[in-house]
Write a structure and sequence with these properties.
The complex is a heterodimer of chains A (380) and B (463).
Chain A: E1 3-10, H1 14-26, E2 32-35, E3 51-52, H2 59-73, H3 75-78, E4 92-96, H4 99-114, E5 119-122, H5 124-130, E6 141-145, E7 149-150, H6 153-166, E8 170-172, E9 177-183, E10 186-191, E11 197-204, H7 210-215, E12 224-233, E13 243-246, E14 251-255, E15 261-265, H8 281-292, E16 300-311, E17 318-321, E18 327-331, H9 340-350, H10 366-370
Parallel strand pairs in A: 1-2, 1-11, 2-8, 4-13, 11-18
Antiparallel strand pairs in A: 3-7, 4-6, 5-6, 9-10, 10-11, 12-15, 12-16, 13-14, 14-15, 17-18
Chain B: E1 4-8, H1 12-23, E2 27-31, H2 56-72, E3 77-79, E4 83-88, E5 92-96, E6 101-104, E7 108-111, E8 115-117, E9 130-132, H3 133-143, E10 150-155, H4 159-169, E11 173-179, H5 183-188, H6 197-212, E12 216-219, E13 221-227, E14 234-239, E15 252-255, E16 258-262, E17 265-267, H7 270-275, E18 279-282, E19 287-290, E20 303-305, H8 314-330, H9 335-344, H10 346-363, E21 381-383, E22 388-389, H11 390-398, H12 404-411, H13 424-431, E23 452-453, H14 454-458, E24 460-461
Parallel strand pairs in B: 1-2, 1-7, 2-3, 6-24, 7-20, 9-16, 10-11, 10-16, 11-12
Antiparallel strand pairs in B: 4-5, 5-6, 8-17, 13-14, 14-15, 18-19, 21-22
Classes of the chains: A alpha/beta (380), B alpha/beta (463).
The structure holds flavin-adenine dinucleotide (2 copies).
Chain lengths: 380, 463
């Protein structure tokens, strides 16, 4: 039997569920269905480093994250989730080990001032004061913003899921979409479980996996996936207060409210969707971490994991309507946890606006045709 | 060229495998995270203890195995205090001590990591003084320490009885033993989990010891709650209705300073799972069990599993199977030589299957009736590492999160120090109440199998 929906959102990660919640707020009468091929937090959201920052090098990202962090601060109230999402705003420390990275920090700092981002440039000594376990040798300087931090992606997703369901969004897990078919002015969405859905509008929130479904309607967008692994340690009394990013070591290290330290260390991997743990990851990651943060040596690793991040040519999100009318897309480009509150709002408006949404437009798919890419200088 | 065989676990299975593989000319590395060989049953004392824990027959088996092992121990690379924390295809095994780690790339890995104990949550089970039966036994065997003055034991299967007898003989006052199933059925069945004819005799002698010490033996009893301000002071027990549910009006309160529990086991199968070995779910044998053929081979090339880590079958099976695995490992890449082993070692194969058939009967005592999942109340902690309550898990299930991965992500159960070894079987039971549990998938296995420090990982030797 075919079910019908006004809006079908594919993917129940933070993008899909935030879009669903915002859309249900705006359009209480719309029948909104969210489907996901897996179970709770099975995508990138269940595998990320939990961190969020407004210290970006591009105004677009600063705006998305500023709005999102303000929402995270009130998430418990806004989503009626009294437990809260374990937000921990102890700041974010970006480290530069060479002059050109530090020059970039300085340029960003000007941009931050313009956008009311309370960031500061720090000397190596100041960085060492902030994070006593840090090795300051070879450090040129840092950039710090106390509003940045981390929160639990699991609690965030649970809060969104429950809030969306309270607004009568139907969320169906374990339902995989295999194919989209256009039928007049609607879509027929074919699922592996043979519970097809007829939808007026579709919003694709499947992150790096989006090309699989786009191809079924002949759309080609430059989205790829890349494996990325992380590790988590035992809980420890506060030892790295801010989230630490080192561009030299290509990592983010983040101590969460419960005391565990999460580390995502980048390793050269070919594009793909391999989420397995690789044999060399742990030793590589521990070398990188301890070179920069030698004071963490005695802390025990509990587990490693693997996920897939989405990549676009400029490492920026893709937001908006595709070339096919009523088929929308929101792909994160590796910052989908921290941007999800704002992206949900923007997409909920874009779904019903006629014409291009001003905030979504710069993130639109057009840029891949025109070549107006918007690269973010501060990506690890 | 002799093959390099690495064996994880120096219990009866691992030691027997080491002896056999060495005898057949292999280069053998044997590692165990404990300071001494012997494994769970033949654990050796760290001190020159006056206490001789166990029955004469068991002690004789122990002496035989240890002397066989001592005869070859200088011909192998035996590493105590070494933990295997990850296994990858290859096989590639990562091992560590406190400060360093090493990557081993042998021809064959034998996993002989045994089992750990399982308790069923009920109010008060996380109080200090509530322990695993095996914990009490280990303390006695390895340190000669008596765990308490007044001990109550509750559980199922044979281990609680064995440990009750061992504690009594060591002079501990065992106040009561509350067993899930009637003693009578334990007596008429070949009841020992390390079964076999000789084993039944061992079981009888344990019961004799208990009778001599005048210990209160209660069958069909279950724990209701453990109480105490900061340490267990008493336990309330009651008769159950045959399905594990307590019968109102039959409650008894028993004072104690230690409550020791055992309601079965969880196999230490995470290394096998990590390497991608095909597994099957068998709660009465210890949860997710690696699937093996008669030669202990798994679906993963170069990875063998022997002893209890391939499903709880007791020490006799472990020893026989260890011999088989050691021999198979030495001839692993010679299919003909391997198939000839069933002839050549027919004695070991027979011994294994004889003891295994007794195990089948025994396993019914480790099949927990559904009522036991009602012991916990809403506030009872199910996942101890992350303090996740029964109610939180039930809420997750009610919200539609029914896979173990989803429950883990939604509640944090299984995300802590033990990696889910202690709680996942209990969570699985809660999810599958009234449903077949065969197709329940385990949590995604990931390194590391045991917590290990960043510095030990960094200080790594790679061949
Ligand atoms: C190791 C790692 C660390 C990270 N660290 C951070 C960080 O610190 N901060 C941050 O902001 N971001 C981080 N990210 C990125 C972040 O996790 C993602 O950007 C975010 O999860 C994207 O959200 P999403 O909802 O778009 O996608 P997801 O969370 O991946 O959800 C997509 C969902 O779509 C479903 N799906 C896919 N295909 C189909 C189909 N055909 N049919 C039905 N359902 C389908 C999937 O099952 C999945 O549940 C990290 C990512 C990784 C891997
Ligand atoms: C608590 C308990 C008490 C028991 N008491 C009795 C009894 O009194 N009488 C009886 O007949 N049978 C008893 N049994 C059953 C008997 O011990 C087992 O059947 C038998 O020991 C199985 O032998 P094995 O070699 O397979 O495993 P084990 O003897 O359990 O040996 C496994 C070894 O592997 C090591 N190991 C595990 N994981 C790792 C790792 N990742 N890295 C390095 N080393 C590792 C452990 O330290 C252990 O030494 C008991 C079992 C348990 C769990």
């Amino acid at each position: 039997m075919t079910q019908t929906a006004d809006i079908l959102i594919i993917g129940a990660g933070p993008y899909g569920l935030s879009c669903a919640w915002w859309t249900a707020l705006r359009e209480p009468k719309a029948k909104i269905v969210v489907v996901d091929e897996g179970d709770f937090a099975c995508g990138g959201i269940g595998r990320n480093a939990s961190s969020m920052r407004m210290q970006w090098g591009l105004e677009l990202n600063i705006k998305l994250c500023k709005e999102s962090i303000a929402f995270f601060e009130e998430a418990g109230k806004r989503l009626d989730y009294p437990r809260g999402i374990d937000l921990r705003q102890q700041g974010y420390l970006l480290l530069a080990h060479d002059e050109s990275t530090f020059a970039q920090f300085k340029a960003n700092h000007e941009l931050h001032k313009k956008n009311d981002v309370p960031s500061k440039l720090l000397t190596p000594e100041e960085c060492g004061k902030l994070v006593p376990v840090l090795n300051t040798e070879g450090l040129v300087g840092g950039s710090f913003c106390h509003k940045d931090g981390n929160a639990s992606p699991f609690l965030w997703l649970d809060a969104l899921l429950q809030a969306a369901r309270r607004l009568n969004v139907e969320v169906r897990m374990n339902t995989r979409v295999d194919r989209l078919i256009t039928q007049g002015d609607r879509f027929l969405v074919v699922t592996r479980e043979q519970q097809d859905i007829s939808a007026a509008k579709i919003l694709l929130c499947t992150d790096w996996a989006a090309p699989q479904l786009l191809q079924t309607v002949g759309i080609d967008l430059p989205i790829t996936g890349m494996p990325k692994q992380g590790l988590v340690t035992e809980a420890w009394p506060e030892i790295v207060a801010p989230v630490v990013i080192s561009f030299k070591h290509d990592f983010a290290v983040s101590q969460v409210l419960r005391g565990n330290i999460l580390a995502v260390v980048a390793q050269d991997r070919p594009d793909g969707d391999d989420t397995r743990s690789t044999p060399d990851y742990l030793s590589f990651a521990s070398r990188q971490i301890l070179d920069c943060l030698p004071g963490l040596a005695a802390i025990k690793v509990l587990r490693t994991w693997g996920g897939v991040i989405s990549k676009t040519p400029d490492m920026q999100a893709i937001l908006g309507e595709t070339e096919l009318e009523n088929l929308y897309i929101a792909v994160s480009a590796y910052k989908g946890f921290m941007t999800s509150p704002a992206v949900g709002r923007i997409m909920s408006e874009a779904l019903f606006d006629s014409g291009a949404h001003p905030e979504a437009a710069p993130f639109g798919t057009e840029r891949f045709k025109t070549g107006n890419l918007i690269p973010e200088p501060l990506t690890v | 060229m002799p093959l390099h065989v690495v064996i994880v676990g120096a219990g009866p299975a691992g030691m027997a495998a080491a002896i056999e593989a060495r005898r057949r000319g292999s280069k053998v590395t044997l590692l165990d995270e404990m300071a001494r060989s012997g494994g769970q049953i033949f654990r050796q004392s760290a001190i020159d203890s006056e206490l001789r824990v166990g029955l004469p027959s068991e002690l004789k088996r122990k002496a035989d195995l240890l002397s066989g092992f001592n005869a070859i121990s200088d011909q192998i690379d035996y590493r105590a205090n070494h933990t295997a924390y990850a296994l990858f295809e290859g096989p590639e095994l990562h091992v560590s001590d406190d400060n360093c780690s090493e990557v081993l790339k042998p021809d064959v890995v034998i996993i002989a990591t045994g089992v750990c104990e399982r308790a069923v949550p009920f109010p008060g089970w996380t109080l200090p003084g509530v322990v695993n039966v095996g914990g009490a036994q280990t303390l006695l065997k390895s340190q000669g320490v008596k765990i308490g003055e007044r001990v109550v034991i509750a559980g199922s299967g044979a281990l609680p009885i064995a440990v009750a007898a061992q504690l009594s003989k060591a002079g501990v006052h065992v106040v009561a033993v509350a067993m899930l199933y009637p003693m009578r059925s334990l007596l008429v069945h070949p009841y020992a989990l390390w079964a076999g004819r000789r084993v039944v005799l061992e079981g009888f002698s344990y019961l004799n010891v208990l009778r001599q010490h005048d210990i209160l033996m209660l069958s069909r009893y279950v724990p209701l709650r453990a109480d105490g301000s900061d340490h267990v002071e008493s336990v309330q027990i009651a008769q159950h209705d045959g399905t594990g549910r307590p019968v109102p009006g039959t409650e008894k309160r028993v004072g104690c300073d230690i409550l020791a529990l055992n309601y079965g086991f969880t196999v230490n199968s995470e290394l096998a799972a990590m390497a991608g070995v095909d597994m099957t779910y068998r709660p009465e044998q210890g949860g997710w069990i690696p699937i093996t053929d008669q030669f202990c081979r798994t679906s993963c090339s170069g990875v063998l599993v022997a002893g209890d880590s391939g499903g709880l079958r007791g020490a006799w099976v472990a020893q026989a199977e260890g011999r088989i695995a050691g021999a198979v490992a030495s001839r692993y890449y010679d299919e003909r030589a391997v198939s000839n082993l069933s002839q050549e070692m027919s004695q070991s194969f027979k011994e294994r299957s004889r003891h295994q058939s007794f195990q089948k009967a025994m396993q019914q005592f480790l099949q927990l009736p559904t009522g036991v999942w009602g012991w916990a109340d809403e506030e009872t902690v199910v996942c101890r590492c992350e303090c996740v309550t029964q109610k939180q898990i039930q809420t997750a299930i009610d919200n539609g999160h029914t896979s173990l991965n989803a429950i883990k992500r939604n509640t944090r159960a299984g995300m802590g120090w033990c990696g889910g070894r202690m709680c996942m079987q209990n969570v699985a039971a809660q999810v599958s109440v009234g449903k077949p549990s065969e197709d329940l998938q385990p949590m995604t296995p990931r390194p590391v199998a045991r917590p290990i420090s960043l510095q030990a990982i960094r200080n790594q030797t790679i061949p």
